[in-house]
Amino acid sequence: MTKRKTHTKGISLVLGGCLGLLIGFGLKQTVFSQSVSTKSKTPEAPSAIDLTEDGPNGLELERGRSDADARAEALERSRGALRWLWLATQAESASPENMPRLVRLAGDDWELARMLGTHWAKQAPEHMMDTLLDEARLARQGIAEPDRLLHQLIRQWADADFHALAEVLSGDERLVDDHNGYRMVGVEAILRHDPALALRSLNEWRLKSFMPSRRRITAWATRNPAQAARVIGGMPSAHIRKEFLATVGRIWAGEDPEAALAFVVRSMTGAPRNELAHSVITHWVDEDLESVVAYASKQDDAAMLKVL
Fold first, then answer.
1. pLDDT, greater one: 250 or 16
2. How many Å apart are CA 209 and CA 223, to the nearest integer?
């Protein structure tokens, strides 16, 4: 019984293979016949895909459809890896003005839209910013997630040229009422490269309730406590200023408390001076009270004694 089943199965496999070969041969013959019949005709140049005209799904094939047109339309409507490959190829040669339509064709596929956005941001970041800010407000292009793409652009642009990013975010009137937090994302992105510029931008943009990354402020204070103290001391938001000066004072007290106090007396005034001095002395006392007493006993400068 087992042998009969095995034999029957083998016959089925052989017949299936033969059928596949016949179909393949038939297709090959058809293609060959078509190619022979068209050799005597003048080949018609394939029409290009025109991304500048409105049409179904954002593309309009030129009149006089050729095989190339049909293939392009099929690729446009394809899914999966083939669609990724086609859109990536189109993006390589597309102008900035055509990128919104390619991104729209990505639909709800965020990874595909992100890949296209990365190319667009590298190619023309200002054009991408301008287009997506309008899209976020007016939804003209039909792009699925303009806010998310804008956040991606801001982070990518900061890595490439954070000075240019800060200038654009400062000068665009559409960001005065920044309900979507683009400038907050900008502060965090710039903070990775230039904390001083990031905090100055935060002040300029009046983001009074926004607290930047403590981890990055801590890293900055560790590298350059004097610069950090000077910039943070000039912040108008008392809450943020006190929070970050406490961080600077703690770190500086652990490294060189005498230098920290000398800086306070020489370079700080008003409330920031008291806040930084308080943080330095408090942490120094916690670590080494005897050293604090010995240092204070040797001081004869009125300003330093007042701080102490």
1. 250
2. 26
Maximum Cα–Cα distance across the chain: 110
Q: What is the pLDDT of residue 46?
A: 38
- Kindly state the tokens that stand for 75: 């690729």
Cβ burial 257-289 (10 Å sphere, 16+ → b, else e): beebbebbbeebeeebbbbbbbbbbebbeeeee
- Rounded to whole angstroms, how far apart are CA atoms 274 and 307? 7
Q: Are 168 and 176 spatial neighbours (Cβ–Cβ below 8 Å)?
A: no
Q: In whole angstroms, give the CA distance from residue 173 to residue 127.
A: 16
Task: Give one DSSP letter per residue of 92-160, joined into a string.
Answer: HH--GGGHHHHHHHTTT-HHHHHHHHHHHHHH-HHHHHHHHHHHHHH--S--S-HHHHHHHHHHHHHHH
This model's pTM is above 0.85: no
Sign of CA dihedral 28, 31, 33, 35: negative
| Residue owning tokens 């000039």 | 234
